[in-house]
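ingest -> validate -> predict -> emit
validate: passed (alphabet ok, no gaps, 121 aa)
predict: started
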Amino acid sequence: MTAQPGTRFGGFSIASASKRGSSRRLAEAFLEARQLGDKDCLVLDVHMPGMSGIELLEQLRQRGDEVPVIITGQPSATSDRRARAAGALAVSEKPFKPSEILGLVRRALDEYHGSGARPPH
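emit:
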């Protein structure tokens, strides 16, 4: 898994993960890390190699991680319901405008920090 730290978008610092030069599955690698570190919000795709974004969300909730999660992609009605039942803050269909995802991330951060679930950095 590679991360490209330092990228900024809409006033946020963005870290992204990609599967470059490795057959390792991203969701599984993320779970193996066993901690979210400084992640305040996750934007996960419905269709990722190996474990889906919804499956990753379910695994995170099972182990007690409450970081806000936004699911993106082309979800079916069933996967949309499943994502919301697992605790997704939102499900956003692709393609989406950057302003839409920024609005969802801002909402996630407001709710997450406002709830006292995690102190701001």
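The chain has a mean pLDDT of 78.
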